Amino acid sequence: MELKRAMLSVAAVTALAAGSTVVLSSQASAAANTTPQKVCGSSYKTVNSAPVGSLGTVYLTYNASTGRNCVATIRSTPGTAVDTGTWIYVADTDQGASDSGNYTSYAGPATVYGKGHCVDWGGNIKNVYVSVYGSNCAALKEKRVTSIH
Fold this sequence. Notes:
The chain starts with a helix and ends with a strand. The chain has 3 helices and 9 strands; from the N terminus they run αααβββββββββ. It is of the alpha+beta class and 149 residues long. It is globular. The strands form 2 sheets. A 5-stranded antiparallel β-sheet has the order 5-4-7-8-9, with no helix packed on it. A 4-stranded antiparallel β-sheet has the order 1-2-3-6. Strand 7 and strand 8 (128-135) form a beta hairpin.
Protein backbone atom coordinates (compact mmCIF):
# COMPACT_ATOMS: atom_id res chain seq x y z
CA MET A 1 0.00 0.00 0.00
CA GLU A 2 2.84 2.40 0.87
CA LEU A 3 4.54 1.71 -2.48
CA LYS A 4 1.26 2.38 -4.32
CA ARG A 5 0.80 5.70 -2.47
CA ALA A 6 4.37 6.71 -3.23
CA MET A 7 3.90 5.92 -6.91
CA LEU A 8 0.63 7.89 -7.01
CA SER A 9 2.30 10.85 -5.29
CA VAL A 10 5.16 10.84 -7.81
CA ALA A 11 2.66 10.65 -10.68
CA ALA A 12 0.66 13.57 -9.30
CA VAL A 13 3.73 15.75 -8.74
CA THR A 14 5.03 14.92 -12.22
CA ALA A 15 1.69 15.80 -13.81
CA LEU A 16 1.44 19.06 -11.86
CA ALA A 17 4.97 19.99 -12.84
CA ALA A 18 3.99 19.44 -16.47
CA GLY A 19 1.17 21.94 -16.06
CA SER A 20 -1.78 19.58 -15.96
CA THR A 21 -4.12 18.57 -13.19
CA VAL A 22 -4.58 14.97 -12.12
CA VAL A 23 -7.42 13.78 -9.93
CA LEU A 24 -6.74 10.43 -8.32
CA SER A 25 -9.48 8.54 -6.53
CA SER A 26 -10.65 5.06 -5.82
CA GLN A 27 -13.99 3.80 -4.61
CA ALA A 28 -12.37 1.80 -1.84
CA SER A 29 -10.55 4.75 -0.33
CA ALA A 30 -13.66 6.91 -0.53
CA ALA A 31 -15.82 4.18 0.99
CA ALA A 32 -13.36 3.62 3.85
CA ASN A 33 -14.28 7.12 5.03
CA THR A 34 -17.97 6.25 5.28
CA THR A 35 -19.55 7.09 8.62
CA PRO A 36 -23.01 6.50 10.05
CA GLN A 37 -23.65 10.24 9.63
CA LYS A 38 -22.75 10.09 5.93
CA VAL A 39 -25.22 7.23 5.51
CA CYS A 40 -28.05 8.46 7.77
CA GLY A 41 -27.52 12.22 7.71
CA SER A 42 -25.51 14.74 9.69
CA SER A 43 -28.32 15.35 12.21
CA TYR A 44 -28.19 11.71 13.36
CA LYS A 45 -25.93 11.00 16.35
CA THR A 46 -24.52 7.53 17.02
CA VAL A 47 -26.15 6.10 20.16
CA ASN A 48 -25.12 2.44 19.92
CA SER A 49 -23.12 0.03 17.79
CA ALA A 50 -22.40 -3.67 17.47
CA PRO A 51 -19.49 -5.39 15.72
CA VAL A 52 -20.28 -7.77 12.88
CA GLY A 53 -17.42 -10.11 13.69
CA SER A 54 -14.29 -8.55 12.21
CA LEU A 55 -16.10 -7.60 8.99
CA GLY A 56 -17.62 -4.28 10.10
CA THR A 57 -20.08 -2.61 12.45
CA VAL A 58 -23.81 -1.95 12.66
CA TYR A 59 -24.52 1.58 13.94
CA LEU A 60 -27.74 2.77 15.60
CA THR A 61 -28.20 6.53 15.31
CA TYR A 62 -30.86 8.94 16.55
CA ASN A 63 -32.14 12.32 15.38
CA ALA A 64 -33.44 14.15 18.47
CA SER A 65 -35.31 16.77 16.46
CA THR A 66 -37.39 14.22 14.52
CA GLY A 67 -37.45 11.28 16.96
CA ARG A 68 -36.24 8.95 14.20
CA ASN A 69 -33.66 6.18 14.52
CA CYS A 70 -31.48 5.09 11.63
CA VAL A 71 -29.25 2.04 11.20
CA ALA A 72 -26.36 1.41 8.85
CA THR A 73 -24.07 -1.59 8.49
CA ILE A 74 -20.61 -0.43 7.42
CA ARG A 75 -17.86 -2.78 6.27
CA SER A 76 -14.39 -2.46 7.81
CA THR A 77 -12.75 -3.02 4.45
CA PRO A 78 -14.81 -2.08 1.40
CA GLY A 79 -14.24 -4.10 -1.73
CA THR A 80 -16.05 -6.62 -3.87
CA ALA A 81 -19.81 -6.54 -3.40
CA VAL A 82 -20.99 -9.01 -0.76
CA ASP A 83 -24.30 -9.72 0.98
CA THR A 84 -24.75 -6.82 3.41
CA GLY A 85 -27.87 -5.86 5.31
CA THR A 86 -29.28 -3.67 8.05
CA TRP A 87 -32.66 -3.55 9.82
CA ILE A 88 -34.57 -1.79 12.61
CA TYR A 89 -37.89 -2.57 14.29
CA VAL A 90 -40.02 -0.90 16.98
CA ALA A 91 -42.25 -3.55 18.56
CA ASP A 92 -44.53 -1.03 20.34
CA THR A 93 -45.59 0.50 17.01
CA ASP A 94 -44.98 -2.53 14.77
CA GLN A 95 -42.92 -0.33 12.46
CA GLY A 96 -39.70 -1.42 10.81
CA ALA A 97 -37.34 -0.78 7.94
CA SER A 98 -34.50 -2.62 6.26
CA ASP A 99 -32.00 -2.51 3.44
CA SER A 100 -30.05 -5.42 2.04
CA GLY A 101 -28.24 -6.44 -1.08
CA ASN A 102 -24.79 -7.01 -2.51
CA TYR A 103 -22.91 -3.86 -1.52
CA THR A 104 -19.26 -2.81 -1.68
CA SER A 105 -19.23 -0.60 1.43
CA TYR A 106 -22.45 -0.34 3.46
CA ALA A 107 -26.15 -1.13 3.77
CA GLY A 108 -28.63 1.53 4.81
CA PRO A 109 -30.03 3.85 5.69
CA ALA A 110 -33.04 2.20 7.30
CA THR A 111 -35.08 4.58 9.45
CA VAL A 112 -38.09 4.40 11.76
CA TYR A 113 -39.74 6.65 14.35
CA GLY A 114 -38.51 5.44 17.73
CA LYS A 115 -38.83 8.28 20.25
CA GLY A 116 -39.79 6.87 23.65
CA HIS A 117 -39.64 3.25 22.48
CA CYS A 118 -37.22 0.35 22.70
CA VAL A 119 -35.75 -0.60 19.34
CA ASP A 120 -34.55 -3.89 17.90
CA TRP A 121 -31.87 -3.58 15.25
CA GLY A 122 -29.05 -5.40 13.54
CA GLY A 123 -27.33 -6.30 10.34
CA ASN A 124 -25.11 -8.70 8.50
CA ILE A 125 -22.02 -8.86 6.35
CA LYS A 126 -21.60 -12.07 4.38
CA ASN A 127 -22.68 -14.88 6.73
CA VAL A 128 -22.14 -13.06 10.05
CA TYR A 129 -25.34 -11.67 11.59
CA VAL A 130 -25.78 -9.50 14.68
CA SER A 131 -29.09 -8.63 16.35
CA VAL A 132 -29.74 -6.32 19.30
CA TYR A 133 -33.12 -6.54 21.04
CA GLY A 134 -34.73 -4.12 23.51
CA SER A 135 -32.12 -1.44 22.94
CA ASN A 136 -31.88 2.18 24.02
CA CYS A 137 -34.90 2.28 26.29
CA ALA A 138 -33.44 3.26 29.66
CA ALA A 139 -34.13 0.62 32.33
CA LEU A 140 -34.28 -2.50 30.17
CA LYS A 141 -31.12 -4.46 29.48
CA GLU A 142 -30.62 -5.15 25.79
CA LYS A 143 -29.95 -8.63 24.43
CA ARG A 144 -27.24 -9.12 21.76
CA VAL A 145 -26.98 -12.14 19.49
CA THR A 146 -24.25 -12.81 16.95
CA SER A 147 -24.51 -15.84 14.69
CA ILE A 148 -22.73 -17.31 11.69
CA HIS A 149 -24.92 -19.01 9.10
